[in-house]
Design a protein that fits this description.
The structure holds two protein chains of two kinds. In chain A, a hairpin with a 5-residue loop joins strand 3 and strand 4. The two termini of chain A are 31 Å apart. Helices cover 16% and strands 32% of the residues of chain A. In chain A, the strands form two sheets. In chain A, strands 4-3-6-1-2-5 form a six-stranded antiparallel beta sheet, with helices on one face. Chain A has a five-stranded parallel beta sheet with strand order 9-8-7-10-11, sandwiched between helices. By secondary structure, chain A is α/β, with parallel strands linked by helices. The model of chain B has no long low-confidence stretch (mean pLDDT 93). Chain B is globular, with a radius of gyration of 17 Å. In chain B, strands 1, 4, 5, 8, 9 and 10 form a six-stranded mixed beta sheet that branches. Chain B has a five-stranded mixed beta sheet with strand order 3-2-11-6-7. Chain B has one domain: Alpha-Beta Complex (Sulfite Oxidase, Chain A, domain 2). By secondary structure, chain B is mostly beta strands. Chains A and B meet through strand 3, strand 4, strand 6, helix 4 and strand 11 of A and helix 3 of B.
């Protein structure tokens, strides 16, 4: 499998103390943290950071979070975090962390689930799985290449949709699984092969991100739509708090 | 040295000594993480091959590998994404048995595990010999499910779990190290959880 040119990742990834610049709500259970990195390293859309919390006695807990912001030279990144019930890290981030705090992070990490920025791609995301795909979409729009991407986002209801103000646009289809807005002719229901078939093109890479159940359902539907396994890249978000 | 996080004291205070640094106990969860579409593999067409620097390249069918002496691993597994599962049981066949049948040549120093999906991972030969690695088809007494690598996966439990390749199809013996899929994508070459060898340079 190929990796994006120019990013060898051979250097040691050091922990750094990022400053929280702002916190904003995406949904009732998801928040975006904008971080200032003292040692910024330009990321690729789709990469993630590891975030580590450390207690005074040395106890620590770390989790991986995808970057939601487009690659840029601001030295800042945005991580969107879903609050998981009982999640030691995500509950702390939601309940305690505020602008001005410092958080230890390390990254960017991962060279497989990345969009190189110049190839046609279909992005399929469910729930919080939209986060790394949003970095790709933001990059494409910033660079005037939104034509390269087609996007299908599955959300339970309008309240659960991340980036609701920003996401809609040409080539973006939103599928509601539990409740749809009254003006949506499709109504609510699970993603079908017909939802995907409209977006499938030859010669396009496919990025699937979501829960394991969503990822497996999405790849099964993609197969039914004629997409070969070899072009599908999957990021499964585990229930790891 | 880690910086203390304002206001963080941690919840899971009773730390099980079986947990390597930076890991947490996933308890009843068994998270599923792989980068490719989950394949649907039929056991009647399944094969497993030992190839490369061996005296006899050897391929087993599903029935043939089940006829080999059984071997069990009882213990813990550790994923680089920070979850661990403690006290698991896996049944299958020891990699020692498979390598002995094929006859490892003295020049062999490393192996590449290849999968039915095209995924690969690399290991020093010493990490898959001496009752440290298995090809397994049962987990906790039940057939390994597809999302966990069924019908059969490699099991190298003393290293991070990406080394325990799902849907394994082949062990190729080499006289040099050859980075596999995650190892080419930013992850550590060996992946010892007790040394927190997660990413390149760790």
């Amino acid at each position: 499998m190929s990796t994006p040119a120019g990013t060898t990742h051979r250097r040691t990834l050091r922990w750094q103390n990022a400053r929280v610049l702002s916190v904003r709500d995406e949904t009732p259970t998801a928040r975006t943290y904008r971080l200032l990195l003292p040692e910024p390293r330009r990321h690729l859309a789709g990469q993630h950071y590891v975030l580590r919390l450390t207690a005074p006695d040395g106890y620590s807990a770390s989790r991986s979070y995808s970057v939601a912001s487009a690659p840029d030279d601001t030295g800042e990144i945005e991580l969107t975090v879903e609050r998981l019930v009982g999640g030691e890290v995500s509950e702390f981030l939601h309940d305690v962390v505020a602008a001005g705090d410092e958080l230890e992070v390390r990254g960017p990490i991962g060279l497989f689930f990345v969009w190189p920025g110049d190839r046609p791609a279909l992005l399929v995301g469910g729930g919080s799985g939209v986060v790394p795909l949003m970095a790709m979409l933001r990059q494409a729009r910033l660079e005037g290449r939104a034509d390269l991407l087609r996007v299908l986002v599955s959300a339970r209801s309008p309240d659960d949709l991340y980036y609701a103000d920003e996401l809609p646009g040409d080539g973006v289809r939103i599928v509601w699984t539990r409740s749809a807005p009254p003006d949506d002719p499709r109504g609510a229901g699970r993603m079908t092969v017909d939802d995907l078939a409209l977006l499938v093109r030859a010669e396009q890479d496919v990025y699937v991100c979501g829960s394991p159940a969503f990822a497996d359902a999405a790849t099964d539907r993609l197969r039914e739509a004629g997409v070969p396994d070899g072009v599908i890249r999957v990021e499964r978000f585990g229930p790891s708090g | 040295m880690a910086t203390v996080t304002r206001g963080f004291f941690g919840r899971r205070r009773e730390r099980d000594p079986r947990l390597p640094p930076g890991q947490y106990d996933a308890r009843d969860e068994w998270p599923v993480l792989h980068a490719e579409a989950t394949p649907r593999l039929a056991t009647d067409r399944w094969t497993f091959t030992v190839s490369g620097l061996v005296d006899r390249e050897t391929t087993w069918t599903w029935d043939e590998i089940h006829a080999l002496p059984r071997s069990r691993y009882e213990g813990d597994i550790h994923c680089v994404t920070t979850w661990s599962k403690l006290g698991m049981t896996f049944d299958g066949v020891s990699v020692d048995t498979l390598l002995d049948a094929a006859g490892v040549q003295p020049a062999a120093t490393h192996v590449v595990a290849a999968c039915h999906t095209g995924y690969t991972t690399n290991l020093p030969l010493a990490d898959v010999t001496g009752t440290k690695a298995w090809v397994v088809w049962d987990a906790d007494g039940k057939p390994l499910t597809t999302e966990h690598g069924g019908p059969a996966r490699l099991l190298v439990p003393h290293l991070y779990f990406w080394k325990s390749a799902k849907w394994v199809s082949e062990l190729r013996l080499l006289d040099h190290d050859e980075p596999g899929f995650w190892e080419r994508n930013g992850y550590h070459d060996r992946g010892d959880p007790w040394k927190e060898q997660r990413y390149q340079g760790d």
